[in-house]
Amino acid sequence: MNQIDRPRRRFADEMEGTTSERSGRHETRRLRHELRRRTVTVSRLEHLTPRMMRVHFISPELADFVSAAPDDHVKLFFPQAGRIDGKPVMRDFTPRAFDRAAGSLTIDFALHATGPATEWAASVRVGDQLDIGGPRGSQVMPDDFDWYLLIGDESALPAIGRRVEELRPGVPVTTLVTVVHPYEEQRFAARAAWTPIWLHRGEPSDADAGLLCDRLASFQPPPGDGFVWIAGEAMIVRALRAYMTEERGHPKAWLKAAGYWQRGRSDGNVAIDD
């Protein structure tokens, strides 16, 4: 019998009683960074997939840029012509990669039907400038777990890709990602033992939660302690979080869930209750 067939309480008891918890492993570090605004310049553009644009920025102001966790967020300020108050629109994005010595920063843009970020990315040219702010802080999960499970949709791919590429060599990591079509799949430069699972579900819908839970039902964790990370549409993330903690008995301390967007809204991240 594999681990997913065990009774829920037994699985939870085994996870909660591990030696690693008692020895102080898996401790999260929360870091605060100096909050400042920087102006960056577009140096290169890549079309990763039909719906994902990678933008490379450079700036001498990035010499002291800090991003300690793969799911950090920076604010991007998009100018809006004709806006009455003259203020730019702010959106959160994940630093996909950065090189402090080179003064470079990489950000991936998921291209949706509308929105200020999509409109900017659709017309961006090398040499264009943009203001960014942050990250305000980082929640750093140590790379000392025995395995990792990363779940999300297109909005989570930058953080998932960065985490996969930063994990230590040989550690098992499974990614479960919903995308509109096979041509939206991505490849990561992984040193970890990476197992990608792609679900091709067409356009996002409320049915995505059931689709992901059905696929998770066949997930057999490797032995040892595991860290689960979930991000994407807020209601779907809540459903997946409940499934992993209540149905699968995964310890809440070893799971992080974040709502990156909410159906019917266009502004910012959404808090997921503990």
Question: How are the SSEs placed, and which strands pair?
Answer:
Blueprint: H1 8-16, H2 19-22, E1 29-32, E2 37-49, E3 52-58, E4 74-78, E5 89-93, E6 95-99, E7 104-110, H3 116-123, E8 129-133, E9 137-140, E10 147-152, H4 157-166, E11 172-179, E12 193-200, H5 208-216, E13 226-233, H6 234-247, E14 255-261
Parallel strand pairs: 10-11, 10-13, 11-12, 13-14
Antiparallel strand pairs: 1-9, 2-3, 2-8, 3-7, 4-5, 4-8, 6-7
Top keywords for this entry?
14 strands, alpha/beta
Explain what you see:
There is one protein chain. The protein has 274 residues and is of the alpha/beta class. The chain has 6 helices and 14 strands. 20% of the residues lie in helices and 34% in strands. Helix 5 runs parallel beside helix 6. It has 2 domains: 147 residues, Nucleotide-binding domain of ferredoxin-NADP reductase (FNR) module (Rossmann fold); 103 residues, Elongation Factor Tu (Ef-tu), domain 3 (Beta Barrel). The N terminus is likely disordered. The relative contact order is 0.16.
CATH architecture of the largest domain: 3-Layer(aba) Sandwich
Whole-number total of structural domains: 2
Record the strand order, biggest sheet: 5-4-8-2-3-7-6
The whole-number mean of residue pLDDT values reads 88
Write down the secondary-structure element order.
HHEEEEEEEHEEEHEEHEHE
CATH domain fold name of the largest domain: Rossmann fold
Distance between the termini: 31 Å
| Apparent shape | globular
Overall number of strands: 14
Class based on secondary structure composition and strand pairing: alpha/beta
Which stretches of 5+ consecutive residues score pLDDT under 50? 1-23
**Total count of helical runs of at least 4 residues:** 6
CATH class of the largest domain: Alpha Beta
CATH H-level superfamily of the largest domain: Nucleotide-binding domain of ferredoxin-NADP reductase (FNR) module
Helix content: 10-25%
Strand content: 25-35%
What composes the largest sheet? 7 strands, antiparallel
Which value, in Å, is the CA radius of gyration?
19 Å
